[in-house]
Amino acid sequence: MEEIKLIEIKENILSDNDEAARQLRQKLANEKTFVINLMSSPGAGKTSLLLQTIERLKNELRIGVIEADIDSVVDAEKIRQSGAAAVQLRTGGFCHLDAAMVKTGLDGIGSKDFDLIFIENVGNLVCPAEFDTGAMKSAMILSVPEGDDKPLKYPLMFTVSDVLLVNKTDMMALSDFDTAALRKRVHKLHPEMEILEVSAKTGAGMDQWVDWIRRAIENFS
Amino acid sequence: MHELPVTESILEIVVKHAKQNQVSRVVSITLEVGELSDLENEWLQHYFDYLSKDTLAAGAELKIQRAPIVLKCRQCGHEFQIQKDELGLSDCPQCGTAGDVSLVSGRQYHIKEMEAI
Q1: What ipTM is given for this predicted complex?
Q2: Would you say B41 and B62 are in contact if contact means Cβ atoms under 8 Å apart?
Q3: What is the pLDDT of residues A45-68, one digit of tens each?
Q4: What pLDDT is stored for residue A71 in this prediction?
Q5: SS in 3 state form for chain B?
Q6: A99, A15 Cβ separation under 8 angstroms
Q7: Distance from A26 to chain B by nearest Cα, in Å?
Q8: pTM more than 0.90
Q9: Is A12 on the interface with B (CB under 8 A)?
């Protein structure tokens, strides 16, 4: 009988992606292009929030968007109409973006010609949290109708994001969303997380969000 | 939900080590996956069987060890283990500080070892 050998491996399964993300961040830093990875569940308002953000920043920054919504060109069209450049990645049912896919998008849009690029990640609170995209910052959107208990259900997403946007605050009166409870839950997972309350619909809180972006770019360059 | 790309990566690393060690067949692979990850064991094995069909690792069993979630209190330095559903709920059991913790363990995605012939 053949002998069974035990072979020690000790390798990180995601090390290829982590390395690709690191290289991408380095390349973007050299190009002076700031990239924000935007994550949320489907319908939390990523595209509306982006349109409102572009509107407020388009006169001071050259903005591009990489869209990863599953097999649809609707979002990219809306972005182009706003005046920003957009590329649509065909993710073909993939549940998240990884650094290699983001690189394809950045090459496609020509990242060096932009000051700020948003990655609109696939709408999903699970998988995108596990894959480093190569972005400098990750922002998460949670909309009021989704409820204040999401940090308990999707803790990793709240751990890896740098800023949390609570969107659709215009619907607060219609729901039992408890902002204080949400803040407490988020800060227990991630004490440094900045939480901004916004409404892409009414524009409330949007100035604080674009200020956050300006500060992040300033600290980076 | 992203078992497929993760499985591709596992297979690639395993085949590389199998060749380096000049073995003819991989019997089992031991993974260490953090409790915070949402990987499903069944799907991992299912995808692995599918992807590994014509490789040295065909038929290998995936043994998945879950690494616990460990937090460290940033006030007193105490490290403590919690369950996934306690995240965001538990205070430091030593000094009682609420919510000033960093994650020590729970996100791992490691291949520890494999058995091969």
Answers
A1: 0.84
A2: yes
A3: 998 999 999 999 999 999 999 988
A4: 55
A5: CCHHHHHHHHHHHHHHHHHHCCCCCEEEEEEEEECCCCCCHHHHHHHHHHHHCCCCCCCCEEEEEEECEEEEECCCCCEEEECHHHCCCCCCCCCCCCCCEEEEECCCEEEEEEEEC
A6: no
A7: 23
A8: no
A9: yes
